[in-house]
Amino acid sequence: MSGNVVSEGGDIAGSERGFGIELYADTGLVTVQNNIITHELSNNQYLESVNIHQGANNDIVTNNIIYKWGGPADFYDFGSGNITSPNAINQTGYLDPERSVETYMASLGGNATLAAFLDAAGNQSKTNWNPQYTADAVNSYIEAGFATTGGRRRRESPRSPTTAARSATISPMDTTLTVTGTAAANSTVTVFDGTTKSARRR
What is the DSSP letter of 133? Predict the structure, then answer.
């Protein structure tokens, strides 16, 4: 698990949550690296930025940014043999760590609410596609806020050369899908309506 943003974890229908990333008992290596866990909104007094449950052993949880999701005591490791350091917990020196979905919408000139973003994302279609209303765009915006004042992020997300690109464009009346960036030859990409298209690499 790498390169994700977990933001504003809250409660569900009055049931207290505030959980970031949880690892349950596993039978193989689990790697959790280069993620951002930021700004919990739960009323739960038992917050969990990361919770490694009993039976989750010999896993790697490192190089993650944890910011305003409780304190260091809210990182739990009940397994054995796990590598859980280093992680950046409540560090300072970030450019704009208070970024959120709401401030992202405000930066686009829209209503500064999560509901506004979800409405815009839900109205996407193959013929009406705006990459600004994707999780990838929001993640990149929040990640940029965790660059340091020296202009570099405290963590880098490794990219595999065979990983699909972050952006794709589809002509409204065309069936051609053009992928920009790194993608394996003869890839297939699932588009918003659930169909798949062949991805031609440029």
Answer: G
